[in-house]
Design a protein that fits this description.
elongated, single chain, about 25% helix, two-stranded antiparallel sheet, alpha+beta, 5 helices
């Protein structure tokens, strides 16, 4: 009796049940595939956008690395100011060459900061590194940032900017006035650039200015801060922008005040000391220095 009952209830799925199950499974697989494909596309899009976004910030970080380590002897010593009655040899010693137009009061040459326009800068930095261990190589190097016109690629359908941000360096013979940047290797820091602007902090006017020539001599050779802005295009043609305020790693130091504290002023009622031409009683500013 048990066997007869078991045989009576042993039967498979009907054709309709199989078709319904297959249809439901197909819809589920299609939904899962669509979800996975959409997630993959989103991941690719976000990765590309992040890569373009990070490229600009990596370039800005490279500029910060060089500018924050800018070198000038005027950060720690005052500028030597020659008097008209100084001997000719003392007048000539004020400048090593065109790249080092001034000396400090401790006779250390001060390098220039050159800027042809608001998108270029040439300066001496201490951000260099030795290429080989235990070699006589300095960490000082001249650095130049500038914009270069970008050659349009005819077969490239992606949005293309007008410029490339270029970095060049000179690490050998840094005291030589014969610099030829046209012969130096160009390193592309950022592609598809629309604009690159460097501004300089003016401590007197309390604002950033577009050219170091707007600063006085001491701040022109030893700037207190920079503001760098980059605009560039991503692969979708959207304009991205990044701005950073950069301060040199040198601590804020008043070289004039330090010199006044280290050396006593000359009594204006006494004759000038010929052995100390830096302090004369006819000082117009009354700061103990010649003008």
């Amino acid at each position: 009796m048990f066997q007869a009952f078991n045989k009576h209830h042993q039967r498979g799925f009907s054709l309709i049940e199989i078709l319904v199950s297959t249809t439901i499974l197909s819809f589920m697989m299609a939904s899962i595939y669509t979800m996975v494909d959409q997630n993959a596309k989103t991941n690719r899009t976000v990765t590309v956008e992040d890569r373009d976004f990070l490229a600009g910030h990596i370039a800005l970080n490279k500029v910060e690395e060089d500018l924050s380590q800018i070198y000038s002897s005027l950060y720690y010593a005052g500028r030597k100011r020659p008097r008209p009655d100084d001997p000719p040899q003392d007048q000539e010693q004020q400048a090593t060459n065109a790249l080092f137009p001034y000396n400090t009061i401790v006779d250390v040459p001060a390098p220039i900061i050159d800027s042809e326009d608001k998108s270029s800068i040439v300066f001496l930095s201490s951000s260099g590194r030795r290429k080989f261990e235990d070699q006589k190589q300095s960490h000082f190097l001249w650095v130049k940032y500038s914009l270069k016109n970008r050659e349009k690629e005819a077969d490239n359908e992606l949005p293309q900017g007008e410029y490339q941000l270029i970095r060049q360096t000179i690490a050998e013979n840094i005291y030589s006035p014969n610099q030829d940047w046209d012969k130096e290797r160009e390193q592309i820091v950022l592609d598809n650039v629309k604009d690159f602007v460097i501004e300089y902090w003016d401590t007197k006017r309390k604002k950033f200015v577009e050219s170091p020539k707007e600063l006085d001599v001491d701040e022109r050779l030893a700037p207190k801060g920079f503001q760098v802005k980059i605009n560039w295009l991503d692969r979708n043609g959207y304009e991205l922008s990044a701005l950073k305020v950069i301060r040199p790693l040198w601590p804020a130091f008043d070289t004039l005040k330090d010199e006044l504290e280290r050396r006593p002023k000359v009594d204006p009622n006494k004759a000038a000391d010929p052995n100390n031409p830096r302090f004369q009683p006819d000082d117009e500013e009354g700061d103990g220095f010649d003008n």
